[in-house]
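Q: A reviewer asked whether we had any structural model of the full assembly, not just the individual parts. We don't, so I'm hoping you can provide one. Inputs are below.
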Amino acid sequence: MKLEYIVSVVILLFAVQFFYGLIIAPDAEFGGADGAAEEAIVNSQSYEPWFEWALFEPPGGETESLLFALQAAIGSLIIGYTFGYYKGKGKSESD
Amino acid sequence: MHIMEGQLPLIWSAFWFAFSIPVIIYGIYKLNKLVSERREVVPLIAVAGAFIFVLSSLKLPSAVTMSSSHPTGTGLSAILFGPAITSVLGVIVLLYQALLLSHGGLSTLGANTASMAIIGPFIAYIFYKSASKAGMNFYLNVFLATALADLATYIVTSLQLALAYHGDYGSYLESFAYFAGIFALTQIPVAIMEGALTALIMKYVIQIKSDTLIDLKVLSASAVTRLKETME
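A: Here is a predicted structure for the entire assembly that you could use as a starting point for your response.
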């Protein structure tokens, strides 16, 4: 259980740094770093878009967060299923 | 670390494709070989891929720069299967995001693959193997290797952008500092978080599939016995 305690402390500290950020910069929106770099590039003088193509562009933030959530859900499902499968298998073999 | 569609000049897009494609081809070869030799590792490969899927979708807030950034999740796979196989798993995630989320892009796929799916995992792998030889505590090793891979990924992205846009943000060094200010600094708490989560999931992998870890030469049989004794 020791590792679980350490990881819980790390998660707690992570939350603390976030709330600390909220206190020292109450107006911060915590926008994406990827987006910030995108903006820096668009504003740079030598930037010339030469390739634009999108199979599908999410119409807005809602659809985008749906797809990100779906990505996390699919991943979690696979991890949970596999771990559960082996745990159950290990148990039935030892019985 | 996602460089968006069309945001690298053609020459640099081509350069990073030339860098990444041979690794991916080698990775597919290694993956096929591993799967045909040891069918029993397939679920573990799925878990490693799924872990990249989950972590790279989570945009975590960082008070260092007051912005959000996502972990990469590649350290787990790099330690288990090596960087070549990890590059294939990473490309799948990058393709999903480029095609369905318009996050990243096809023209920048080579560059994003180089940072997230190749160089980051490679650093995790080298660190893990060296520290493992030096006798470092297993979980500390996983934590450091993964956190370093995460940071390295964002440092590589900063470097890629500095190389392509150095004229606009001063010298090479100044542009690197500029982009690293956006990416690498933000990443510090995120990388620590990723390292801790990966160490934890690694513990559960030992619980359920320790024999496979010995087969894959991630851990020696005696190391597994020792780790299992401390688990109770």
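A: Points you may want to mention in the reply: Chain A is about 70% helix and 0% strand. The CA atoms of residues 42 and 48 of chain A lie 8 Å apart.
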